[in-house]
Write a structure and sequence with these properties.
The complex is a heterodimer of chains A (about 350) and B (about 280).
Chain A (H helix, E strand, L loop, with lengths): L10 H11 L1 H10 E14 L5 E14 L3 E5 L6 H8 L7 E6 L2 E2 L3 H5 L1 E4 L11 H11 L4 H14 L15 H12 L6 E5 L7 H16 L3 E6 L2 H7 L2 E6 L2 E7 H5 L3 E7 L5 H7 L4 E6 L2 E6 L2 H13 L4 E6 L4 H14 L1
Parallel strand pairs in A: 3-8, 3-9, 6-7, 7-8
Antiparallel strand pairs in A: 1-2, 1-4, 4-5, 9-10, 11-13, 11-14, 12-13
Helix pairs in contact in A: 1-2, 5-6, 6-7
Chain B lengths: L1 H14 L2 H20 E3 L6 E3 L2 E3 L9 H25 L2 H6 L4 H5 L5 H35 L4 H28 L2 H19 L12 H13 L3 H10 L5 H6 L10 H21 L5
Helix pairs in contact in B: 1-6, 2-3, 2-6, 3-6, 3-7, 3-8, 6-7, 6-12, 7-8, 7-10, 7-12
Classes of the chains: A alpha/beta (about 350), B mainly alpha (about 280).
The structure holds adenosine-5'-triphosphate and magnesium ion.
Magnesium ion (MG) binds next to helix 3 of chain A.
Chain lengths: ~350, ~280
């Protein structure tokens, strides 16, 4: 369990309070907002004769605050990739609009200060890893020894030092992903878009990528992450949005989303009297006693300790205490189900 | 500069395609052959090919040097037009493949810049090959025979220009279809069509004696790059063209810049149309 989902002072929560309590706070927040979309919609039309329409995004309103790691979650085809592509002007919105760094969509400035790791990215196979970085660095306007140095240090950082002079067609999937990560960091982006960054990467590599992301956040970068890997999102994201069929179903911090559902299993040595179970029911929810096993759902750690106090006051010995926190995954599936129902 | 990085990368990608390597290899063999086979006659009045002196006035009234240079230029120009399409019809589609397009389009370059640097890179790759061959042949004739034929060099340069204009059609097709195969096929189709249009008075006109039909052919001829016209005129820069001779005594043999001017206009329009199309597409 991560410790980050207790009371967090993430940029987004600071922003939330600033906005709530003062006009200047509101202004400051506007400056802190790095991505803001208003009713952003995208309909793909394809086929001339039997034309088909796909509404990939339906009036999406989202804002991302400077310095946070924002996760966009959703099932396949939800519109996550489309959303990012529109922000980078790789695709164009059908209606609605958006601002990135305070610039209107399409401004070259946005791409200058952003990094992007696309999903299923493919590099010219005749280049080596180092040549690839030199090419894309050149497209960012970098050149000379500083570009060379940057490329080499990034390759080292993503663990491709020994592979930098090998042709890309010989790279494995995880190595390509690492190269993609390095490519996205060439211009020291203030805003980094990552589409499934850990796709195909081994567990050690995933941890390394998470560490890189945490470093970047510490340096003040904003990270926008598209993912289905909820357990991973849970480990690093400050805030998440859940997107389904082009619509935003929920937005919030991970702790906002999952904290009300902290659940525990307490194994005791002697069966519990009903009277005790009833009094526990006053501080906890979903109280169920099955022989020597007690299930409780509590809003926070304080309530959990109250339950323990009650048990101990009755002289009950506790053998084990197991957290059954509802994971983001449980929540994700639950939200998608209720989304379908509506 | 960003655009320069993109152009250099495109040149590199085009040059590494198999067909250009083949052209380069065959070109080198021909250069070697010419270097060994062509000599000045001992008295310096004529040239000797593989030990056979070539009499000055036997070749349909064309000087032997001009004749040989015209043959070399025509075959190298046809070869590069043919092989070149295979080499670079895929340059734009390769940038637009899923997974690659996102990488390039997310960089701080305008789409027009991206597209044009691909087109320029392709043309430079072809141009380097044409000029390499031409300069080598030019040096051989200069050093061994003492003929420094500037018209031959200029002619090679005009072939490069002709290619750049012709390539606008291939680039547009490959941009819209994102398919190398279609770009190759339509590129060749256009090449043959351009040939037919060039000599339409003698051919296509006679298919249907309808005035609107004939005017339509004229319009198509003038709004598309005049590939055959440009190549013919490039050859005329070398000297009196024996093929013009064969058309009859009244055939015009002087170089005309007009096909290049018309093609410049139509290629510019095609490149502009392609840039406009590209800047509106979703990838
Ligand atoms: N170029 C396109 N033309 C037509 N439809 C498209 C295009 N790109 C995306 N779509 C459609 O838009 C919808 C959203 O696609 P998108 O790639 O954004 O989903 P996603 O959330 O990224 O999915 P995944 O998790 O599988 O990557 C899908 O239904 C897809 O079929
Ligand atoms: Mg996607």
């Amino acid at each position: 369990m991560s410790s980050e989902n207790n009371i967090s002072l993430s940029p987004s929560s600071i922003c939330h309070y600033l906005t709530k309590y003062s006009f200047f706070g509101y202004l400051a927040c506007r400056l802190m907002t790095i991505v803001e979309t208003r009713a952003l919609s995208k309909t793909f039309r394809s086929g001339l004769i039997r034309s088909s329409r796909v509404e990939a995004l339906k009036a999406v309103d989202l804002s991302v605050t400077r310095g946070e790691i924002f996760g966009l979650l959703g099932p396949n085809g939800a519109g996550k990739t489309t959303f990012v592509k529109i922000l980078l002007s790789i695709a164009y919105p059908t209606s609605g609009d958006a601002q990135v760094f305070g610039h209107k969509l399409g401004a070259i400035h946005i791409r200058k200060k952003s990094g992007y790791l696309p999903e299923n990215h493919r590099y010219p196979p005749f280049l080596t890893g180092l040549q690839t970085l030199l090419l894309f660095g050149g497209l960012h306007g970098l050149k000379g020894p500083s570009l060379m140095q940057k490329a080499r240090s990034l390759l080292e950082r993503v663990g491709l030092k020994d592979w930098m002079n090998v042709k890309i067609k010989r790279y494995s999937k995880g190595m390509l992903q690492r190269l993609g990560m390095a490519q996205a960091l060439l211009n020291n982006p203030e805003l980094l878009f990552l589409d499934e960054p850990t796709d195909g990467v081994d567990p050690v590599g995933r941890k390394e990528i998470r560490d890189v992301l945490k470093d970047l956040r510490a340096q003040g970068a904003t990270i926008f992450l598209n993912s289905h890997l909820l357990s991973e999102v849970e480990l690093i994201c400050d805030r998440v949005a859940i997107l389904d069929k082009g619509q935003v179903l929920r937005v919030g911090t991970i702790s906002d989303i999952t904290a009300p559902q902290l659940e525990y299993e307490i194994q005791v040595v002697t069966p519990l009297p009903q009277r005790l179970v009833d009094s526990i029911g006053l501080v906890a929810k979903n109280v169920r006693a099955e022989g020597k096993l007690l299930h409780v759902a509590v809003p926070d750690t304080r309530a959990l300790n109250q339950v323990i106090d009650l048990l101990r006051r009755d002289g009950i010995f506790i053998e084990t205490l197991t957290a059954k926190r509802a994971s983001l995954e449980d929540y994700f599936i639950q939200v998608l189900k209720s989304g379908e129902a509506t | 500069m960003k655009i320069l990085s993109m152009i250099i990368f495109s040149v590199r990608e085009a040059i590494l395609r198999g067909t250009l390597i083949f052209y380069f290899a065959v070109g080198n063999l021909i250069i070697l052959f010419v270097a060994l086979a062509v000599n000045a006659s001992p008295d310096g009045s004529s040239i000797v090919v593989l030990g056979n002196p070539i009499p000055a006035k036997s070749l349909m009234g064309v000087s032997p040097v001009d004749f040989i240079l015209i043959q070399l230029q025509r075959s190298s120009a046809s070869a590069i037009m043919f092989l070149g399409i295979f080499a670079i019809a895929g340059i734009i589609p390769s940038m637009l493949e899923k997974g690659t397009a996102e990488l390039f389009l997310s960089k701080p370059l305008s789409r027009t810049t991206l597209f044009l640097s691909r087109a320029i890179g392709s043309t430079v790759a072809i141009g380097l090959n044409i000029l390499y061959f031409a300069v080598a042949i030019w040096l051989i004739f200069g050093v061994k025979i003492g003929v420094w034929h500037w018209g031959f060099l200029l002619s090679a340069l005009m072939v490069v220009v002709a290619f750049a204009f012709y390539y606008s059609v291939v680039a547009l097709v490959s941009l819209v279809t994102r398919s190398q195969a279609l770009a190759i096929m339509l590129g060749f189709l256009f090449w043959f069509l351009a040939g037919a249009l060039e000599s339409r008075q003698a051919g296509l006109y006679n298919l249907w004696s309808n005035d609107i039909y004939r005017r339509t052919l004229d319009v198509i001829y003038y709004v598309t790059p005049q590939v055959s016209g440009m190549l013919q005129n490039a050859t005329r820069l070398i000297g009196m063209n024996p093929y013009d001779r064969m058309l009859g005594p009244q055939a015009v043999s002087d170089f005309s810049i007009m096909p290049f001017v018309f093609s410049l206009l139509s290629a510019s329009a095609i490149y502009a149309l392609a840039s406009w199309y590209f800047s509106r597409q979703d990838y």
